[in-house]
Structures are given as C-alpha cells and as structure tokens.
Amino acid sequence: GSSGLRLEELYRQAGLQVQSLPLNADLVSEFQATGDYPSVVHISGLLAESLSPREVFLSSGENSEPVRAEMLSKLLSRWPPSQLRPFVILEAADNPFDAGRTLLLRNALAARIFAECTRGVLAIGPYPKESLSRTIGALLPVLRSRNAAIGERHVNFWT
User: Based on C-alpha coordinates, what's the Rg of the chain?
Assistant: First the structure.
C-alpha cells in the first residue's frame, strides 16, 4: 500500500480469490470461521531485527507489535491435515537506506518459515516503487497456472 500498488485489486482482476488480513489479526480464527484456508499466502512488510536475541521479524510500523517467525510458523502449521500447507510469497518492503541488509534479513526469515511450516517460499523484494508493479504483473500468471510444481513456478516467474 505504501508504494501505491493495490495488491488485492491486482489479484482479484487476475481471477484469484483474495482475503486480505493484517498480520497482527488472529488469522487462524479467521480461516477457521470460513473453513477456507488459502493455498497461497502473500506476506508483505517491513523487515527489522532485534538485538538480543538476534532475530528477524516483520513490522507494520513503529508502534506495532513485531510479527516473529514463531507466530508465522504457528499460524501456517495449523492448516488442516487434509490440505497442503500454503505456498508463501514473502515480500520485503523497500528500504532505500540499506537494501543489502534487507535482502539478508528477508532470506533469513524466508529460510526459517520454509524449514518450519510451508511447502515453499518465494522471497521477493525489496523492489523500488517503479518496478514493483511490473514484478507483480509477472507473478500473477505464474500463480494462476494449474498443476505447476514450485520449481516450474520459479522458472516461469524469472523467465
């Protein structure tokens, strides 16, 4: 949203069902109430790290509670046994002051989420505002493809 890109609208226009929830909501209760657990979860946010202990977390602003990897793992591991755990798109918000560190933090968080609770993670961003729309536009057809393996989705996206 801070970049002016309305991700929910782009997903809807591509024919995907969208449920947009803030990260600090009780997401499991939301999914249990509808019985509709998504197969793809797109998480977008600012990345930060604590100093003691050193850990990467998502932040939605200065006065918000951090969203730690444990919370995401707990959430994503509670999918019903009859459904595959979700494929996660982890999008790091642009940090023009320290892009290299943001990439390292993003990859550390993605690795932890992947190891603990998902069937795959596509870590994207940070992208400058002007290229984010183009990147999401390239991602949408990949998400809509049926019966594609994660490796195929990765190759199609980068192609």
Answer: 15
What secondary structure, in 3-state letters, does the chain show? CCCCCCHHHHHHHCCCCCCCCCCCCCHHHHHHHHCCCCCEEEEEEEEEEEECCEEEEEECCCCCCCEEHHHHHHHHCCCCCCCCCCEEEEEECCCCCCHHHHHHHHHHHHHHHHHHHCCEEEEECCCCHHHHHHHHHHHHHHHHCCCCCHHHHHHHHHC
Tokens read off for 5: 């890109």
Q: Could you read off the pLDDT tens digit of each residue along the chain, which spans 159 residues?
A: 556 778 888 888 888 888 887 776 566 677 777 777 888 888 888 898 888 778 898 886 667 778 888 888 888 888 888 888 888 989 888 887 888 889 999 999 999 999 988 888 988 888 776 777 777 887 888 777 777 676 777 777 677
